[in-house]
Amino acid sequence: MSRIKKDEELLEKFERIISLSELLSECYGPSGNLVAIDKRDGELIFTSDGMKILESLKDSDPLFGFMFGAAKAMDEYVGDYTKTTIILIGQLLKNSLELENAGLAPQTIIDGYSMAMDRVARCLRSLVVKLSFDGENLAKISRTIIQSRGVMGKDANLLANLSSQAVLKIVEEIDGKKVAKEENIKISSYDSGELHKSRLISGVVSKPAYGEEKLNPVSPRIVENARIAFINSPIEVVKPKTKHRILVKDPSHFLTLSLDEIESVNRIVSRLKEIGANAVISSRRIDALPVYLLGINNIMAVRNVPAEDLERMARATGGKISAVSELSEDDLGECERVEWKRLIPDGEPHLFLEGCPKRSVSLLILGASIQIEEAVNDAVKNLCLVTNDGMRVVPGGLASEIEILMDLKKFSRKAEGKKSMAIEAFAKSVEFLIDSLLKNSVSDTESIKARLISRHVKGEKFIGFDCEKEKIADTKREGILEPFKAKLLSFITAYETARTLLRIDKILNKK
Q: How much is the pLDDT for 239?
């Protein structure tokens, strides 16, 4: 069957993806530019986060929506490398169009890209270094991720240490393997306060919708040796179930109604005392009367806690969330202390659950910009990923990309037929990544790239570029290291997405 050229509409869509790729290339690396996103409410956000940029565009074109889905899967699993993935997708598409214009069929390009991807995976595996699991190595990996977000110097060191300590505290051994569950680390960022006062808390910290100052003053502010009932149903005063008017002929009728209401709440309080609870935390409403009656019985009442935080608290304390009518003693969670505290003077109170029996920590980042918030979230995701992958890392600072580029070029010269052109096109896409980061970091891009390639030709595979010091460095010695799995997944996701787009195009061409 003869090959039919793409229609203009499809070409235009591909060009938009290529343009997005080149836009993101200007944001690539620690020194990349910021993009202004105009939110629907008129607020401007300045970010270099590839996920946020793509999210702002996903509704403008179905293919952007498809790209967003690929990027979202990457972001949720890895928390970083979104820009790398999208840039690669765009460049692979751009180079495929050039190859089609040169006479190659889409399937030939796909086959060549598949061969190239196999070489990329093989090359990355040859670069793997397996580190010992300790705070120092975790901090090195974390620092690399944080610096890639443009956070440098003492701020990067502080955040790297906090994120690495967070992972150390929640890691557990299952079947002889270290396992770090990201769900056991809560990251809370605040634009108030000072960054150097950020801290790690063993336990859970939450900011309910209503702070303790909104509750009755008799409700305890501190509970030691807490036994906590977690509920997802309201504690409300039972009102008469009637739509009819009630004719009150005697003032004592008011008292009768009030006593009935008090009795309905007292039954709940008695039940909580019976099972041994001294704190009740709810994601729903607790009326003022129940709060008061709980308080005079020395039971702390906390209402309107975010549902996600309630689940985290139950998990950390070994408790179970249930309706108030179904509570049993076995449902109670336990911790050493529950207390209302302020993170900063005159700040809003937060609820602290400390001394929890299960592995759970809260990372409180004060004075955080959007850039810092994104950096810490990415760092924690990557540290959990690399821990669960047995601490396998590859050299950062473009050292891995240089090795991949050299290997693909060498492989393309040995490959037979037109597929060698597709392999060369894949290499060209990787080279675009290298050029983009160097262009955003230094003025003498070509000189630095030539020197890096020269060192790699000599077998110095860990030589890369230190973006903070703006010089060539031994990435292994300097601790510029990236999770192997994250790096590999960014290439796989880019390849699979580009291949899917090319196959869709092939099906369309047959019609």
A: 62
pLDDT tens for residues 334-353? 999 999 998 888 788 899 99
Comparing CA positions, the residue from 240, 242, 233 lying closest to residue 258 is 240
Helices 62-77, 82-101: inter-axial angle, 10-degree rounding: 140
Return the biggest CA–CA distance within the chain.
102
What CATH superfamily classification does 204-360 receive? GroEL (3.50.7.10)
**pLDDT tens-digit map of 29-73:** 888 777 777 666 666 777 777 777 877 777 777 777 887 887 788
d(CA 146, CA 192): 21
Q: State how far the Cα of 48 lies from the Cα of 62, in Å rounded to an integer.
A: 23
**Considering the chain, what is the average pLDDT of its residues?**
87
The beta-carbon contacts of 53-59 under 8 Å, at least 24 apart in sequence, are 53/20, 53/23, 53/24, 53/27, 54/20, 54/82, 54/86, 57/20
Contact 290, 269 (CB under 8 A): yes
Q: Report the pLDDT value the prediction gives residue 459, as an integer from 0 to 100.
A: 95
Q: Report domain extents, the chain.
A: 8-130+394-510, 204-360
- Contacts of residue 126, defined as CB under 8 A and 6 or more positions apart, other chains included, come to 403
Task: Summarize pLDDT for 415-445 with one digit per residue, the tens.
Answer: 988 999 999 999 999 999 999 999 999 889 9
CA distance to 18, 252, 262, 290, 324, per residue, from 237 (Å): 61, 19, 8, 8, 13
Q: What is the DSSP letter of 324?
A: G
CA distances (Å), origin 26, targets 42, 49, 86, 284, 407? 24, 12, 13, 46, 26
Q: How many CB atoms within 10 Å of residue 171?
A: 19
Alpha-carbon gap, residue 190 to 373, rounded angstroms: 9
Instruction: Please name the amino acid found at residue 427.
Output: A
DSSP letter at 297? T
CATH tag for 8-130+394-510 (out of 1.10.560.10, 3.40.50.720, 1.10.3720.10, 1.20.1050.40) = 1.10.560.10
Torsion-angle region of residue 383: left (phi > 0), alpha (psi -120 to 50) or beta? Answer: alpha
